[in-house]
Every structure is written in structure tokens, then in C-alpha cells.
Amino acid sequence: MAVLEKLNVGVVGAVGRGGSFRAAFDAHPLARIHAVCDIREALLEEAAEKLGASERYTDYEEMLAQSEVDAVVIGTPMHFHAPQAILALDQNIHVLSEVTAAVSVAECRALVAVVKRSKAVYMMAENYTYMKPNVLVKELVRRGLFGVVYYAEGEYIHELKGLNEITKWRRTWQTGIDGITYGTHSLGPILQWMPDDRVVRVCCEGSGHHYMDPREVFYENQDTCVMLAKTTKGGMIKIRVDMLSERPHAMTNYSLQGTRGCYESARSRGERHRIWLADLHEDKNAWVDLADLEEAYMPRMWRSPSEEAKKAGHGGGDYFEVLDFVGSIVDGTPCPIGIHEAMDMTLPGLISQESILQGGAWKAVPDSRQW
Prior knowledge:
There is one protein chain. This protein is α/β, with parallel strands linked by helices and about 375 residues long. It has helices at about 20-25, 45-50, 60-65, 80-90, 105-115, 130-140, 160-165, 170-175, 185-195, 295, 305-310, 315-330, 340-355; strands at about 5-10, 30-35, 55, 70-75, 95, 120-125, 150-155, 200-205, 225-230, 235-240, 250-260, 260-265, 275, 290, 365. The strands form two sheets. A nine-stranded mixed β-sheet has the order 14-13-12-11-7-10-9-8-15, with helices on one face. The chain is globular and about 60 Å long.
């Protein structure tokens, strides 16, 4: 590590998404934010102060070359994630990348190749896997209380037509391509609830085009896109992504079905996450509040979370993913969302984009472990 025996971290995209990571790095005794990078130079000084960084850059490659950074957090728009990760990894600089990992299969292949030859850690920052209810469901699955898990649903419903015009990259990469362009928040937790499994084929269809952008051009992405996915163990997953329809946000909708239990997340404000497990609940027709199982089954990370964790974005996910990332570097702890897990979460959405262009045809999803 760097001179002061602390992991020096550089944050690219520091004025925007990257600005939310200070609490987690401040809380870690072996890491600190050392440098910030963003093309919005007028706001960079403020970002540096907010994140506690001593160095500022407007050019990412310059930061990698000149700053003594050991790791980078990539909080830039989606189409920069893979290229910027590759540049860092080729210099043996550790990478924590926002989702999705890449915007094409070719980029995925290039990213896998560089991780294989690099000495650095790569982790995809899928923060939804760290949200409190998702962590608890994962633990209940681990203990066998769902029996054999064979079906799941995930929905990411986030109307962002206005945001398209502010963060203009979204108009191309999120709503300018048909199919599942932003599905890892839905698929990520589900794959952790289906351990040792992966998606092997997908099909995708859409609901049509009903909205125009301010230039009176229809969005290329259909309003609601639904992807069906089959797994190696025969399970079925349904993913819905909708970033155009006029309706309240619902970005954390999930359901899970196993031979011994089922789970349904709250779908609107005022509702509670509900669960039924045959081994714990006698009344087969009565849901139980998921929170009722916290005392007996909640993993330690969420039993007494720090104030930093409770205040962190994405339901605490921004905090816990940083702890795992630093732990993988410092202690050699296996990275929970390393390159192949990142590919398992990213590739199905990319292949869905091929499926929807071919009228919903089933398409095979490559296994990055064989590349």
C-alpha cells in the first residue's frame, strides 16, 4: 500500500455518484479517499472538500499516472465503467465499479481478460445485495428455510424521463437501447438467493412505445421490458425494468418461491415485507412480517450497524460494499461480487437486448468462467 500504510483511494465521477462514498471510507481504519476526478472542474474543489481528498484531477488517466492511488471507485456513467476499470486494472490498481459492469458483451470479455492478468481486485458495487431485507432473505435461504428455491421476480421501476435531460448519458444507455439495460439491481439479490446458480438463457419482450422525449422522438427502450431467465438448476427468474411509465417509483420489488417458503417485498409505502416459511409458520394462509425474523436470523452486519451505515445510500449498501471491497484487498477475503459474479449479473441484460431485437427469441447467456 501507499506510504502511510493506508489504502489511497481515487474517486472518478466525484461530483456526482462518486460523492456518496466518504462515510464508508472514513469509517475504515485502513483506507482513505486521497484523490478525486471529474470533468466538471468548477465543482471539483467542493467535491474534494466533501470527500476529504487532497488531490484533484479533471483527467482520469492523469490521476492514474500521477496520483499514488491504490484503488479507484468508478462512479461515472455506465459506458465509462468497463474502459475505466480496464485502465486501472492494467496498472494493478484495484477497482470498485458502479453498475452495470459493461455495456456490451465485447466489453465484458475485455474486462474478464484484464482481471485475469491483473494483480488487483475487481468488485462490482451492486449495493442492492447489501440492503437489510435482502441480506436477511439470503440468510434464510442459506439456512434452508426456503427449501429448494426455484422461482424469483425482481422489478426496477424508476421513471426518469426528466433525469434523462439532466444526466444526458441516460438517454442513450438506459432508455436509448431496447431491452434490459439496467437490471442488476433486480437480478443481483436474486442470484445471491439462488446460490451456485447462474442464468443460462433469456428471452425478452416489451410493452410498446408510449412516450416521447422533449424532441418528440419515441424512446428506443420500450416502456416496460420483461426478461425471463432460466438457470443452470432449472429455476425461473422474471425481471421487469421500466424507466419511462408514469407512476410512483418502485425500485426494490422482489418475490422468491421455494419448496418450503415464499417471500414478497413491500410494493408501496406503508406496506411491510412479508414472508411465509413452512418450518416456522403453522398457518399456511397467513403472511408474517419479515422484520419478525430479524432477532433470530439477521446476520451480524445488520444487528448493530454504525451510524455511518444507517446514513449511507441505497439502504446501507454503499457502506457495506466498501467494507467488503477493502477487506478483499487488505485481508485477501474472497470478493463477494468479483468479476464472474459481476458478469452473472450483467450479461443476462445484455443478451436480453439481442432477444428483444429478434422478437423475444431465447438466447444463450455466456459463462465468463469459460472465456
